[in-house]
């Protein structure tokens, strides 16, 4: 009897008596303790998870606020950028108009491409007497041939035209070559890179090559520039690729030739070759060919004597 426990339950129907061994009591105690610890552990886990959920919600709300702030800043920046681009475009148009007016004044004054002078019979004879070496040397150091590889034709010639952007008649001082983006641009004579970068006056990405005897060539609207200022380049060397940067309506190359600061018709030079050697001297009368040829003859003679 000592090792048993008795439980008496009384209700309206009567009284019932139950007895338990002590070992059962121990089991019940252990189960009760485990149950209590389980409940406590579960409550702890629930509290930790609830804290993490609350923390996640807080960071999510803060992140959404930050994203909204970034979006607002982005919109504000885009508006400012658009306004800045409009101002730049307005200034470029103003500069283009001023440049066009200056060009027209120079043209009217006869200062842009010089007063044409016919070659004398003696000068024609001297030019005809040039050796093959002298002719080839001249073709290497003075711009000649096409600046695009491959050549796909012209889209706009030298002279008065309807400007595709400004929509009015202006004098076009270069040749526009047809080309797709990425077409190779090559220099048309030996020289040194005078400028390689972005030009805000409408040319976009621009390369200027300084050549011998007062000549310079301009290559505009490039998508890529492969040379740096001060770099020595050879005739036919790649200097960049065709693009549509600056004031342009599509991919093409704007090509100019300057002689002593005055722009000349590039068409006369692009068609110049060993087979059509005298054509340039007859068409381009703004250059003192006689004195230039005499200097080249002296230089080639000195070169031959040294050899």
Key words describing this protein structure:
single chain; 307 residues; alpha+beta; Glucose Permease (Domain IIA); eight-stranded antiparallel sheet; four-stranded antiparallel sheet; 6 helices
The top-level CATH class of the domain at 110-306 is: Mainly Beta
> What is the fourth-level CATH superfamily of the domain at 110-306?
Glucose Permease (Domain IIA)
- What's the architecture of the domain at 110-306, going by CATH? Distorted Sandwich
Our Rg estimate from Cα atoms comes to 43 Å
| Class inferred from helices and paired strands | alpha+beta
- What is the H/E order? EEHHHEEEEEEEEEEEEEEHHH
Number of strands: 16
% residues in beta strands: 25-35%
Helix content: 40-55%
Average pLDDT over all residues: 81
Shape: rod-shaped
